[in-house]
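Sample entry (407 residues):
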Amino acid sequence: MLRTQLKVACRLYNTLFHLEEEEYKKNKHSMSRNELRQLALVLRKRNTEFQALHSQVAQQVADRFYWARQRFFEGLANKPKEKKPHMYLSLVYPQGGWKLSNIREVGQGENTEKKKARLYLSKIGFFTVVIHRDFPLEGVSQVCVKLNPSGRIFVVFLVEGEVEAPYEEKRAGEPMEVVGLDVGITRLVTLSDGRFLDNAKPLERSLGRIRLLQRSLSRKRKLSKNWFKAKLKLAEEYEYVKDFRRDLFFKLGALLARDYVILVLEDLNVVGLIQRGETRKRRMRLYDSAFSELRRILGWQFQRHGKTVLAVPSYNSSRECFQCGEVNHSLALEDRVFHCPFCGFTLDRDLNASLVLSKRACRVGATRLVCLVGELRPIPPLPSLGLAARRRRGGAMIQEASPFRAG
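Predicted structure, serialized as tokens:
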């Protein structure tokens, strides 16, 4: 039923698209949002096929086309075009047409918040959904049901207002733990307290299977039954890579947000890094590391706990000496140990970079940090906890770095 609804919604979207084109060609007039909504309701009354959609869902399809057109006018996106049925994967109930009932707890141990419920969607039927967090039903303003390319169904509840009570912040005047974090390809993160997390490289590990599935898909006749089957298997593999990476980032963020109040990151130009990649393999590994997504998830986790993420300039962070502040311009990318030719300071390259980031946080964000921190104090070591979901292969642990000191 959901797939049928998505196909009907796609046809309604394409109908609105063609009618808008005809209107503009004849009268040089673009329909407003209300005109598109009314047109969607008129089409729904006249065409029995479109009556399979809930009236508010049909209006939301018109809203989707309107906002796609507005983004084109503002120069934020390409010109809207006709949608393909297998690419239209979500329906939105803006106000009514849904009901949540029979809510019951199913979580055990640490997952006590997990619940199950029955969700009714008008014109589709009932779903059994797993609820991962509590939210007020009276605050729900929109329900979106989304079909992933892999076949998994997700329901997103848009809730207005405060959902979760913020975590208690530390009292004013108390010293706050600060940690510098350096990102890389071999080691995903290196903390300024001497701990690091190896890069699990989920895409690189799955690349062999992805190539086989992609080759199998290219041999199928497009839009045939076997083509859809091969496409589903390929989507499942890509989704596994995405879920593996996000699971790792969220667990890392929860671990850091629990023990630290201020996280210092380098303000990287990730697009520039990828474009300057010398080899194809290096560019692929930069994509696989997903530094932008890591920073976004860590920022969300710290904000959720009422804590701070501070971005500092990344220029020469790996070449600057933590002890004397001089820059070692002769340091090459393959050198994994930092040696300062000015003061003789020697340390692991990534560990030195994370310490430099912490030092820059005091220098660049002095006004912001002085009032919160006062002065830095020794950071307690992180516990060695497994972070990656070992579902099929691979894994990662936070380990203790081995700094190389001389003299």
